[in-house]
Design brief:
Layout (H helix, E strand, L loop, with lengths): L2 E5 L5 E6 L2 H9 L4 E4 L13 H7 L1 H8 L5 E8 L6 H8 L1 E5 L3 E7 L2 E6 L4 E6 L3 E5 L4 E6 L5 E8 L6 E7 L5 E3 L12
Parallel strand pairs: 2-13
Antiparallel strand pairs: 1-2, 1-8, 3-9, 4-11, 5-12, 6-9, 6-11, 7-8, 7-10
């Protein structure tokens, strides 16, 4: 289930604040993030599936998402449980960063938590298949993969340009505790 957490006490504790998708979308719109949930067809791929096969299987929901965008290039980002560089990729995704352009993607397989930091607040969005997120340029963020599963997203590059890093910060592993639904992570412990 998609859930949104918010930093309440600025002590690395994020509390559950929304589980209703429309409320999540409204809250995130307040920080310039577009969130939507898109029903996806049930499709199973193996690790050898080509990006064009994956994109082609979701063409109808992708067309709906792209209808209001300028020229868009698509690609697929996948990390399997057996990926030889999985630990390195997990560590890189957990480094706080920002881009010089919009970063958009829809999760099509797996799960994880997208953390987003404004000047004074951190939000954490637990993502599942069908969750579409469009992060504006300059918004600091990082992503925690579900360590027990692989994940796959389709990324959207507006104006066919890949965003470049405009900020690279600290490794955020183990710093935040999510509370409110029984999920607990201890600060200072690796995630």
């Amino acid at each position: 289930m998609t859930q949104l957490y918010r930093d309440i006490d600025h002590a690395y504790r994020l509390r559950l604040c929304d589980t209703e998708r429309s409320c999540i979308g409204a809250r995130l719109a307040g920080i310039g993030v577009h969130y939507d949930h898109v029903p996806l067809p049930a499709v199973v791929f193996d690790e050898e599936s080509r990006p064009d096969e994956i994109i082609g299987s979701y063409i109808e929901p992708l067309d709906r998402l792209m209808a209001s965008m300028p020229r868009v290039a698509l690609d697929v980002a996948s990390v399997s449980i057996s990926h030889p560089r999985r630990e390195t990729i997990e560590r890189e995704l957990m480094v706080e960063h920002a881009h010089d352009a919009v970063e958009s993607q829809v999760m099509v397989h797996g799960a994880g938590v997208l953390f987003m930091r404004t000047a004074d607040t951190v939000f954490a969005l637990s993502c599942e298949p069908g969750d579409y997120v469009r992060v504006p340029p300059g918004l600091r963020h990082w992503f925690r993969m579900d360590s027990s599963r692989s994940f796959r997203t389709i990324r959207f590059f507006e104006n066919e340009a890949r965003p470049r890093l405009s900020h690279r910060g600290e490794d955020m592993r183990g710093l935040f505790e999510l509370v409110g639904d029984g999920l607990r992570e201890t600060p200072g412990q690796p995630i």
